[in-house]
Amino acid sequence: MQDRMKQAIDNWREHGFDVDMADIVYLDEHNDIARYLDTRGWETSATSTSELFLANGLDPIAEHDDDRAPFAIADYISATMNSASRTRPGRGSTQHGG
Question: With 72 labelled, which of 4, 12, 65, 81 sits at a CA distance of 20 to 30 A?
Fold first, then answer.
């Protein structure tokens, strides 16, 4: 995955798009964000990159598309806090904490 991402970034740079992916993605071990939020009173849904493309009138990412294939495995997570969780102390949109 990291090699394909590096290759995609190198291709972008050849076209004048210079970005440091380390600033916008985290590729090391991490928690499943949907599961993490689900256990804390949120309702989550995952949408694949290809589903998002289709929903916006674009072709899905093909596996052989070297420029975009690294992004095909990404899921975008939407989350809404359950109304029951909003009433519990320490939770909700107006309270902040760790």
Answer: 81
